[in-house]
Amino acid sequence: MSSKLQAPIDYLKGVGPNRADLLRSELGIHTYQDLINLFPNRYLDRTKYYKIKELQRNSAEVQIIGNITGFKEIAQKRGKRLLATFQDDTGRMDLVWFRGQKWIKENIKPNTPYVIFGKVNWFNGVFSMPHPEFELLKVHEQNLHSSMQAVYPSTEKSSNKGVTNKVMNNIMQNLFLETNRRFVETLPESIISELKLLSKSDALFNVHFPKNNELLARAEFRLKFEELFYIQLQLILKNLIHKSKIKGVPFKSVGTYFNSFYNDHLPFELTSAQKRVLKEIRHDLGSNAQMNRLLQGDVGSGKTIVAFMSMLMALDNGFQACLMAPTAILSVQHYQGLSELANKLNISIQILTGSSTTSQRRKIHESLENGDLQILIGTHALLEDKVKFKNLGLAIIDEQHRFGVAQRSKLWKKGPSSTLSNENETNIIPPHVLVMTATPIPRTLAMSVYGDLDISVIDELPPGRQAIKTVHRYDSNRLKVMRFMRDEIEKGRQIYIVYPLIQESEHMDYKDLMDGYESIIREFPQPKYQISIVHGKMKPVDKEFEMQRFVKGETQIMVATTVIEVGVNVPNASVMIIESAERFGLSQLHQLRGRVGRGAEQSFCILMTSHKLSQDSKVRLETMTKTSDGFEIAEVDLRLRGPGDIMGTQQSGVLNLKIADVIKDRDILQNARFHAKRILSSDPSLIKPEHKTILNAYREISKYKNIWNYIS
Ligand code: ADP
Ligand code: MG
């Protein structure tokens, strides 16, 4: 059986060399197996026959029984189109062909009953059907028809060159005939009976040739479950293997730094979410395995203090810690904030960025290597080879979506040497890694994408935060917006104005930014008003200078590109104006809005747009004005963009899903994950006889990567 499914598609009856080439090049189908795993996009109801009188102007696909009574050729700009009059006992309509007219005229028998099938259009008072499928009624009645007909994915080329949907259905039928409809089961008996799943063979048959809706639903469920089950199994196994193989630096105890900070210096009461996450982290750090944890928390949820307290755990055990941020501005801010806390405990802390001077660097390198320096904050500069730690125990990465996997692994190499050196393996113990992101990823997706990381979530904001009032305003309301700005500045508040910046139209974007800046200066003249500007073309020192003026309250308005997107914390800034808001993605808008609402004052976010808005832009703007829940926003974002655009999904299996959908099938995903976990917790190596099916299937997956290449 296995060998049969691996056979080249050319061998299948009804395929032949030309179609085989098309199947390969257009649809990626090389073998029988690929074909059987080409799942239909949708199904057509072929139980109903319409009368011409019943047709609606909704361009639905319908089948009709009737006769062709005559042909007409109509000249048009290029070539001509062939028109046939088609009629039943209730009326008449047109059939239209733009190609293949000669063949049609020669082969269609006039005044003979046919069943036609296709999409109807309504034009100039007449219904017409372009390029209908048709079959002699006599033949139609003899054939065995599934009441629901599968519609397969196709490309323009494949269907134009003769691999029509009808052809696909035929060759699929031949495949089932040749294989006797029998396929090896790939899920264990226990799951099949517990969830009352269809067998593999029945599921495959019914997904291609459904007898009825109920069987189709069960077939789809079974195949989706299976697909998600094996992805989860893979991810969970990877995580287990990681934990058992990769030893971490053991942090034996919580010590004086942590306790004294917790008891005497904590600037506020931790939220219960922060406490829970700290416990999760503590648990990881206390185990023998290396921590690899993703910390998700909305903007302003208080990740920094969690990071700091995790660092204290490292320091308490005699290890160093580092925190890497994506921009210099953010690094500086972290450095300033954390220095205040560190000083209370006499902890040594330094910052390293691209603009650190040679002598600063030299000092940092030296004190890192001899262990005098306990905490290092910085940008990518931390990754440079020259930066060597004496004993790095914990590396924290803020805003992880800006860093790639390669950078993460560079960090790993900065861990301390193992004393129990192993002959073959490198004797470096990777530091524990905590990755923090403010871009919430819907849980279901996170499970698929980061299934091999452990995930913590801060799902609660510190108390006393006021919701940010968010409104959408058109450019034509600009005067009112200016007046509002003046009033807020009068009250002593500060304002951000952000302009989009995308690579493709960088030039135009800078022009917009500078024009905007000019007009703001005109509206808000010196010396009464002071204005900062920050954008990516400025030198880091200049950027920082301008930023600092704003942080210190010397300027009231900060005009910027998205440089300020991440992490900047200016509690007195209470108004965020986003220009051309329609050009930003949802998660970016949410990030930007998170820059305000950090102080005690009521904060505002104003989304400025032109009147020309696409449907998606409208949804994004409505979502922003309606909710401030990052997870809810992430869900909408995911729905609008699909998982493909979300960082990190590229490497995971979610993009290659053939039948399941991470958004729509999240219940199945949860269910599949539950079962995969349960099986692995009772039998992590899959050695029990009842798990043989899984082991076999799993081995096949690892061999083929694409999980659908294993049925045999
Ligand atoms: P983010 O998760 O976006 O990095 P921060 O760590 O910068 O958020 O925290 C945002 C603000 O909230 C900071 O000013 C911080 O001091 C404050 N904060 C954090 N945790 C709490 C808490 N439990 N109670 C009160 N304020 C808090
Ligand atoms: Mg932060």
Listed once per kind, the bound small molecules are: adenosine-5'-diphosphate, magnesium ion
| Rg over C-alpha atoms, rounded to the nearest angstrom | 32 Å
This entry's quaternary arrangement is single chain
Number of helices: 25
> Helix amount, in percent?
40-55%
Q: Runs with pLDDT <50, length 5+?
A: 420-424, 647-654, 706-712
Strand order of the largest sheet: 6-7-4-3-2-5-8
As a percent range, the share of strand residues is 15-25%
Give a count of the beta strands, DSSP E runs of length 2 or more. 22
Please state the overall shape, judged from the principal axes of the Cα atoms: globular
Please tell me the overall pLDDT: 87
The largest β sheet comes out as: 7 strands, mixed
Distance between the termini: 6 Å
Which structural category do the helix and sheet elements fall into? Answer: alpha/beta
Family: Belongs to the helicase family. RecG subfamily.
InterPro entries: ATP-dep_DNA_helicase_RecG (IPR004609), DEAD/DEAH_box_helicase_dom (IPR011545), Helicase_ATP-bd (IPR014001), Helicase_C-like (IPR001650), NA-bd_OB-fold (IPR012340), P-loop_NTPase (IPR027417), RecG/Mfd (IPR047112), RecG_dom3_C (IPR045562)
Protein name: ATP-dependent DNA helicase RecG
Domain Helicase C-terminal: 477-644
Give a written overview of the molecule.
It catalyses: ATP + H2O = ADP + phosphate + H(+); Couples ATP hydrolysis with the unwinding of duplex DNA by translocating in the 3'-5' direction. It is a single chain. With 712 residues, this protein is α/β, with parallel strands linked by helices. Helix content is 41%, strand content 18%. The protein starts with a helix and ends in an 8-residue tail after the last helix. The chain is built from 25 helices and 22 strands. Strand 21, helix 21 (586-593) and strand 22 (604-609) form a beta-alpha-beta unit. The strands form four sheets. A seven-stranded mixed sheet has the order 6-7-4-3-2-5-8. A seven-stranded parallel sheet has the order 12-13-11-14-15-10-16, sandwiched between helices. Strands 17-22-21-18-20-19 form a six-stranded parallel sheet, with helices on both faces. The structure holds adenosine-5'-diphosphate and magnesium ion. Adenosine-5'-diphosphate is lined by residues 268-271, 274, 297, 299-305, 438, 462, 569, 598.
